[in-house]
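Note to self: keep these together.
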Amino acid sequence: CFRSWGLSAADTTQGLVLGIYSKEKEDDEPQFTSAGENFDKSIAGKLRETLNVSGPPLKAGKTQIFYGLHQDFPSVVLVGLSKKAAGIDEQENWHEGKENIRAAVAVGCRQIQDLELCSVEVDPCGDTQAAEEGAVLGLYEYDDLKQKKKMAMSVKLYGTGDQEAWQKGVLFASGQNLMMPTRFAEIIEKNLKSASSKTEVHIRPRSWIEEQATGSFLSVAKGSDEPSVFLEIHYIGSPNANEPPWCFGGISIKASANMDLMRADMGGATTICSAIVSAAKLNLPINIIGLARLCENMPCGKASKLGDVVRAGNGKTIQVDNTDADGRLILADALCYAHTFNPKVILNATTLTGAMDVALGSGTTGLFTNSSWLWNKLFEASIETGDRVWRMPLFKHYTGQVVDCQLADVNNIGKYRFAEACTSAAFLREFVTHPKWAHLDIAGVMTNKDEVPYLWKGTTGRPTRTLIAFQSRQCLVQIRKNVFTLS
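Structure:
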């Protein structure tokens, strides 16, 4: 382990993160987790003795640091987990206990990192996967472009916990952190090939894109000198290679205050691709195809002009009355192409509208779908991950605002400035005939300020873990069905 992190025996100073539950009653003694109890016994009760003097951290996410209690762990961070019995909160639509663990472990690991220790062991806190997700997500910060970088710190499970759940937590959290700002297609290709031999990657050039008659997508890229790329990735995890796949898909001139955030407009593509990379690493018995259309929207004499009419892959014409509404133009052709694979499900994620940020903020992803089954499955997965989704209306009322168009079959913006997230979803629906389709508008969850305690500021990779959980749960259901049939 030390070699893998480039450490010498002299640099093996490590910290320990332990959890503690809130008191049920005022007169109760603080209740450690199982790992905390074992640690306290190993040091003859010194931790509890110290707590009786100083008082424990009672609130979720609050911490105390102790020094010199154990020769192997010179620094011990005790983190508050709130109530031990915390479960699914139906008002919040998440598992409160899991979220408390993620938040607490993230805070504890960051404190160990601030002490510049090279290694940390983490209490499983009753949910090993949630603890590891909190550790990995809490410690991740993109600093590749900075001269001063934080010390790389190894993270290990404390005690004899569930190693399988620990590794699952690593994959879920690492998948969310796969948000790369440059060389997108090449990096995804590299990650997929290292994840599994069951993958195929096609980086389609502009010549191929033009052959597909994807006028909607190409209209966005007309003003850029950067070559457009259509990234198509296949993961063949099912024993039946011919089984219908699950199809997943994902810079305009703006006010200066928002322009810097446009580097995260590739968030939908990274979320989708990261979920597929994680599925490959988990060796899920499922076939998945990921489609990511990558291009720049830049101004020049060749760029699209207001009022231009372009033709999408399904033959429908689009009047472009807002060149800033570019994401839906790119998605339209991707959705048309997705149908050619005869998939079981079509799901797209995109940072589509600022209106979604206004409506829901960073609390949850807005989800539009024509399938109640798909909504229920994604919703159930989001409760477990804490990265929530919320169903938004896909009414014909909004369709009328985009198909009432002067020059073409459909307009890329609604007649009115209201309900933009809904009218954009209605626009996408014009290019979908599949009965199980979901559109995730992730503009609100694209970045983190300080709302999610186990994520750093900046781009978040949300809701990758929810998509991974959704895939995993469907595979488990399929496996159970197969077992029942065979018996």
